[in-house]
């Protein structure tokens, strides 16, 4: 299978064709996403992206908002860059707290959390690099609930990560959110396919 690292206009289905296969496509994407998600601590989740998840995001936004060609350019600009390019993992990191007052307190305590997220395996530790589309922490220290992250890997790190059964940890060393989780083997195996 060829690794797909870009989404272009040619990849996007006309709306009638998408609607005709939306139910089947949704089932396929749900199955893919199940093996690309890791919870960290009580409030945070990594949703690892790939060509399929970003293609679905674009198609769904067009389906929901019905903005046509004008909207398509914006969706491609927003989501196509989040497809891994073959030597990295890409994740949407979300801080999810249902209660609004509590959410505000949690986010206020997690300034620059994006600088403290990492994947560890063997003797390797790969820290996240935040997308530079916008600063996600305000001057008062409150962070955003959503962060877009890249984990850049060297060739040696790719080889180590791809080893079946490798013990992979995902963590945060922020002073107010120190958590560590073991990445399930099904997730590691799925993410290993993001490397060329």
Structure description:
- The chain has one domain (12-192).
- The chain contains six helices and nine strands.
- The chain has helices at residues 15-34, 51-65, 68-79, 100-108, 155-162, 185-192; strands at residues 37-40, 44-49, 88-95, 117-121, 124-127, 129-130, 146-152, 168-174, 177-182.
- It has a five-stranded antiparallel sheet.
- Helix 1 (15-34) crosses helix 2 and helix 2 (51-65) runs antiparallel to helix 3.
- The mean pLDDT is 93.
- List the uncertain runs: none
Structural class based on helices, strands and sheet pairing:
alpha+beta
Termini gap: 11 Å
The tally of beta strands, per DSSP, is: 9
C-alpha Rg (nearest Å): 17 Å
Helix-residue proportion: 25-40%
Mean pLDDT: 93
Order of helical and strand elements: HEEHHEHEEEEHEEH
Binned strand content: 25-35%
Strand ordering within the main sheet: 1-2-3-7-6
What overall geometry do the principal axes of the alpha carbons give? globular
Whole-number count of domains:
1
Q: For the report, how would you describe the main beta sheet?
A: 5 strands, antiparallel
Tally of helical segments: 6
């Amino acid at each position: 299978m060829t690794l797909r690292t870009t989404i272009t206009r040619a990849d996007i289905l006309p709306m009638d064709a998408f609607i005709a296969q939306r139910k089947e496509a949704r089932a396929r994407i749900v199955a893919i996403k199940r093996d690309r998600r890791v919870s960290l601590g009580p409030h945070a989740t990594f949703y690892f992206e790939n060509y399929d998840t970003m293609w679905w995001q674009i198609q769904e936004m067009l389906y929901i908002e019905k903005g046509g060609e004008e909207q398509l350019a914006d969706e491609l600009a927003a989501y196509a860059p989040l497809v891994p390019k073959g030597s990295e993992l890409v994740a949407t990191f979300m801080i999810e707290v249902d209660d609004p007052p509590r959410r505000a307190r949690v986010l206020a305590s997690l300034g620059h959390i994006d600088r403290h997220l990492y994947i560890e395996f063997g003797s390797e530790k790969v820290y996240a690099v935040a997308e530079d589309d916008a600063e996600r922490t305000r001057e008062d220290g409150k962070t955003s609930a959503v962060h877009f992250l890249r984990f850049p890997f060297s060739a040696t790190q790719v080889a180590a990560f791809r080893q079946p059964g490798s013990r992979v940890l995902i963590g945060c060393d922020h002073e107010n959110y120190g958590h560590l989780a073991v990445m399930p083997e099904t997730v590691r195996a799925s993410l290993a396919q993001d490397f060329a």
